[in-house]
Each structure stands twice: as C-alpha cells, then as structure tokens.
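note to self: dont lose this again. the chain is below, predicted strucutre after it. 474 aa total, dont forget to put it in the shared folder this time
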Amino acid sequence: MIFIKKINNYALVLILLNFFSTSAFSKNIPSSFADLAEKLMPSVVNISTTQTIKTTSNPFPFEFPPGSPLEDMFKEFNKSTERKATALGSGFVIDKKGIVVTNNHVIQGAEDIFVSVNGSEEYKAKVIGKDPYMDLAVLQIDSKDKFTPVNFGDSDKARVGDWVIAIGNPFGFGGTVTSGIISARNRDIGLTRYDDLIQTDASINQGNSGGPLFNLKGEVVGINTAIIAPGSSGSIGIGFAIPSNPASKVISQLIKYGETKRGWLGVRIQQVTQEIADVEKLENAEGALVASVSEKSPADKAGIKAGDIILEFDGKKINAMRDLPKLVAQTEVGKKVILKIWRNQKLISKKVLLGRLESSEQFKAEKKVEPDKSKYLKVENLKISVRDLNKDDITKRKLPKSTTGVVITEVLQGSPLVFVKANDVIVELQKKKVINSKQFSNLVNEVVKKGATTLYLAIYNSKNQRSYLTVKLK
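---
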C-alpha cells in the first residue's frame, strides 16, 4: 500500500508539473479570432486593376519565317484584337484619408485601379509611389470619405511560433480570414534584391498579394507577397510576407517623396566561404568580401579596397553577405557610419558618408528603360506575356548567336508556369524550335487542341543557364 501511495503521489506531482508547464506555454493561444477579425476587416481592401491587352491571331495553319517577303504580303490577314484584362489583389489602409499599401506587382502595368472597402463601396485609386525593388506600392483612394487605418507593429519582435492572421482577397473572395503561425524568419527566396521575408503557414493564395499579416494585437507585422505552390496547386502552407519594419521605411519615403531614397556604399560584394576565411585567418566564414569598389563612390572616398571583408556596418554585425545590402539600403542618406573591416588579417575601422543609391551611376546603369508593351503578346493558355528575342538580348546576355525564342515579360496570376520568371527565354516547346512570339503562341494552341496535359520546354534562365522543364496543364 505504501508503495502504491508513493507512486500515486509521484503521479500527482508529475501531472501538476505538466499542467503548470502546459499552462505557461499555452497562455497566449486565442479561443477565437472573431473579435480581432471584426475589428480589422474595415481596414483591409480588395484591389482590382484593368489593362488593355493586344493580341494578334494568324488565320493560316502555317507560319512564315521572320523577314520573309511573304510575311509582309499576308500580314494584312492577321487579326489584331484588344481586350480589357483584370487582376485582383489586396491592400490595407494606413491613413484615414485613404492611403493604401499593397504590392507593386498587384498594380504593375495597370491603367485603372479600383479599391473595394469593407466588401461594399468601390473607389477609384491612383499610385502615389512604387518600389519594384521591395515590391511595394502606395495608393491614394479618390474620395473625401474617412477610412479606418491600421498601424504597423515591430516585425523585429515577431518570433517563430507567434500566432498571425492574414486577411485578403484570395481568388476574388474578399474579406477572407486565415490564421497560422510565423514558421520562419529572414527567408531569402530570390524574389527581390532585399529579401528578408517572414514565412507563415497562414493560408495565402492568389489575390492575397499586398494584404496584411497581423499579430494578435492587430498590428501589421508583414505584407503578404508570395507563396510556394508547386504545379499551381494553391496554398500548401508556405507563404511569405515582407516584414513591417523595412517596409514601413520605404512606404514613408514613397508617401513623402513619391520615390525611394536608399543609402549607397558603392561596393560589389561576394560571399565569404570557409576557404576564404581560412586564407584570411578569420575565425568564422562571415562578413561580405569586397570584390570591387565603384570609382568616386562613398566606399572609394573612405578608402575601402577590393579584398576587404566588411564584418560590421553601423554597429550591426554582418553574418552573411546578403545582410550588407539590406542594412545599407535601410540607412539614411548622408549618414556617417563606421565600418569594421578585416584587412591583411587585422581589424580596422573606416568612417563612410553614405550616398544615395538612386543617384548613383551604378543604379542608373542597372535601371532598364521601360520596354514598348505594344510588342508584348499574351499567351492565354499559359497566362504569360512574351516578346520576340532580339539581337540586343543575344548580345547582352551572351547567348549563342543562332538563338531564337521568346522572352517572358510577365507571369500572370494562375499561370501553370510557376517555376519561370520574367526575362527567362523560351527556346523550345515540345522539342520544336521557338522562332518568335506568334509562332510560339500558335504552337501552344496546337498542343492544347491536341489534348496534351504536359508541356516540355527548354529555357534560358536569368543566369543564362539552359535547362528543360515540364509543365502540367490543368
């Protein structure tokens, strides 16, 4: 009996310990999101955009080679049509005067933008400013009505495992609320040059882009912008949001100036590998290795040299190469910062007066002139837009001189080509050489009419690497 009593007492202690332990970790689990969702819903908007799409169809079952005299002779038979295309997205109000935040890709190329508030009244909106480098845009609703704003939270305090809710307009179903947790932080998926994304398992689908990711205080800690959806299968619990802290700095600049003003250092950098760290006698493979310094740049004036390893910027440690561009971009133009540098196996400091990225020759050289969209052709069955590959493309990208194909200019929502991006070049379809946009569109139509369920493509990606991929058609 005594033995049994002791066991029972131990069991009781264990149960109590487990109870208190569980209570400590579960105290923040909400019983319902209803009150929070009801409070936030009036601040989340549905965004729809329209743009004119021009398409040209060939009535003949054959295609003339580019430059052929017969091509000009029969071009009058080609039918050119225009139609209005619409796209959907989400956004949220940050000022009672009707200032709305969304993704740049939601409104990119739009001729008209309409914002629906609280699932009812629709307003026209205009673009105040946009930043394709962080995929952000700020809109102004054309109305004197007062709107309900939400506030940004501190995304640096958001922890993996924290509860979050997403509200948006997936597939046109406005006012949709989903919940989940922060799955990871500091994700770099190659979406923008400043990727530092929050990963969440709250369901995010097409149309959620630009919508808010809220914490349990009702503060915006992220702006939903991308999902992983193999085979265009929709949400699989891997979504990404731009953190509110860096986003709010860009948004403030867009509202104030209509453009961004990012810090500029003027260095080209590369990763510090373990082999480089060993040669340089660094304890760890960390920091950013300076590959080159732009002439007359802030770095050049401060005496930074190729071969230096930047270990710290303005008091912040550079753990990996990708940390430096984000820190520099978020720093105020004209600020004097201290850089800690590893040079000749010694730690030294340099004081740098930051310039403005947008004013630099480096930035101007990178910035591409807006192409003539009238030459784009939308391929309906694939939900992409393409243009002819030209000689300039071949020269600049150093492709084989005999290369022909089409350059992808836009991948629209719902496209089955989930693994391709703008500027990828399609050179083959079903093992047939792609000549130009019209021929490619006709090839796609032929394949679809024959009932094929899989496309077999050969492409050059943005790094000019040639590869084959298969695409499942719905």
